[in-house]
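To the team - adenosine-5'-triphosphate complex, inputs and output below.
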Amino acid sequence: MPVERTLCIVKPDAVEKRKAGAILARIEEGGFKVVALRMARLSVREAEGFYAVHEARPFFGELVQFMTRSPVVIAVLEREGAVTVWRDLMGATDPAKAQSGTIRKQFGANVGENATHGSDSADNAGKEIAYFFPGVEVSPTA
Ligand code: ATP
Ligand code: MG
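Output:
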């Protein structure tokens, strides 16, 4: 697997529960290098833009409201196979369906408030990293 980067967001529910540090520890223990990190309170416009692919879904308004209600922690993660490995470590979108040992199983509340985001492809990872870290090189460091 090539070394690549993916975008992680620790969502408002997990930051509110003060689990951002625990989640970042799981990420580092999972062999990822955190190569960029910032905390932000997303604006409605930023959240709508980020999740634009879900614009037509019935939960879109709820999703934007959730993602903007309090701060998030946004990180760029690097390792071999980062996109797939991070999705596997997060677990299924619905925490009730996530495997034991996954972050969403441990920290997620329900299908909407599920603790973390992860890019779903290398292509989207590049776009999402550029969206939140416009100055960061997408190609991995040695
Ligand atoms: P993410 O993109 O946040 O990593 P995902 O790729 O597992 O999650 P998506 O289908 O892309 O899942 O949905 C994006 C987000 O929208 C979910 O993580 C969740 O917060 C919210 N969401 C998805 N389905 C529902 C639903 N049925 N009801 C409420 N919120 C939902
Ligand atoms: Mg998704």
